[in-house]
Amino acid sequence: MFCYQCEQTAKGEACTKGGVCGKPHDVASLQDLLIHALIGLSTAATEAGKRGIVDRETDVFTVKALFSTLTNVNFDAARFVDLIGQAVRRRDGLADRVRAAGGSLPDIDALGFRPADSLEGLVAQGEGTGLKSYPAANADILSLKHTLLFGLKGVAAYADHAQILGQEDPSVYAFVHKGLASMADAGVSLEAALGLVLKCGEINLRTMELLDAANTGAYGHPVPTAVSLGVKKGKAILVSGHDLKDLAGLLEQTRGKGINIYTHGEMLPCHGYPALKKYDHLAGHYGTAWQNQAKEFAEFPGAILMTTNCIQRPQPVYRDNIFTTGLVGWPDVAHVSGGDFGPVIKRALELPGFTQDVNGKSVMTGFARNAVMGVAGAVVEAVKGKQIRHFFLVAGCDGAKPGRNYYTQFVEQVPADCIVLTLACGKFRFFDKDLGTIGGIPRLLDMGQCNDAYSAIQIALALSKAFGVGVNELPLSMVLSWYEQKAAAILLTLLYLGIKDIRLGPSLPAFITPGVLDVLVKNFGIKPITTPEADLKAILG
Ligand code: SF4
Ligand code: SF3
Questions:
Q1: Which of 8, 65, 345, 473 is most buried, taking the most CB atoms under 10 A from its CB?
Q2: Where are the chain's structural domains?
């Protein structure tokens, strides 16, 4: 296997003998083969599109299959065997329609391959289709192809979340197909590869806009909300991942059953949505970011539901309590589907739950674009009156590396006349710190999940309009942490928007060659994080 799509990759280079994330060789190989099948499917879909043939079901399938290969989503070989079979059937169906319409298809392996009929055979086939097999004239072009592929995985995640709630745009699907098809194109130039990477950022912005419309359309605009970190006596279910619809379904199905629902990790911002916070039994938030789940899930005395990434190997002590749904999978872990959470509820009722109330701190969430723009006038006045000196967007993924302490220390050292905007699971490094307020405006504003990066972009654009300057001239600095491929997609969106001087950590992506990094540094001033002291000094002077 050869996988280097996430920040955790072995030795900062690549996982070649099993993933640091727990992805075994056979699953890695099946994921490679699935991408290979999708490259064939997308090549057929792109040719079909030129003849006005669009198959929405195949489009939806493509983003689900791609999302399944995102880090920490699905570790279940059987599910990938099924997805590979579906991809090939859909590929052949579309290819037939292209030929029937008088079109032709390129002669590439991804269009011709037939899946083996055994698991071992598929794994062996996958071994020849990995990232290194993509044709490219040089290492920099290959690096850009991989960057595009990982960006597309992030787009696919957002597109799937949006689609589940009824928001779709055919242009997003068309670009996903075009981007995947380009993986097999041996003639892509450096300029064309860079163009596709930046276009991926643009398409990701549109996709995040769809997701924002989906979430706010279904559950209302988040409002600032205090969330308890304590627990209530009684039966309990913990919901992790990112999926709002699953949480809404579970809240509805547990109504009046005496079960309290707690959010974990990236589900924390759900407390801010009017149509979710209205449930009295949405009791609070339990735990921190994904990499702490082995300890936190082991201590949770109820059932646990994983709605999306990031799942880790379930420990024996809670293996019978954890359920996956949607695209998440782990071999031999119970999977619920069709929005029926009956088995999760049954398990929660069998388990003891919390035996007593425990009061905890509370944290604030819900400062998404609508809430922040509601106080934009006060914010602008505070900047003009010099009460607010600078904004820091300290956002992105969390992870297990010790170097991630940088983000905690950075926020601790941000001067008292500055505001910290945050989103995604990286915030758990500092989410419960009381940073106080400036003129009634909290100094720590949680804008939501990684899926809500659109809110941060809209706030930055609104501030730039209010001050009559470009985003790069605003007193705003982005200090980002990445782990998986949604973060890669967001980074591409920021580059597409021309945002400069982003600080990125805890390490730079292994899939970026020195040549590509040079382009990013020259054109965008992107830089690795150093120390909180040095970076704050460089930013604030
Ligand atoms: Fe390694 Fe990350 Fe790939 Fe897992 S997803 S195999 S940790 S690079
Ligand atoms: Fe976190 Fe997995 Fe990226 Fe959603 S939960 S930000 S890592």
A1: 65
A2: 10-218, 225-350, 371-540
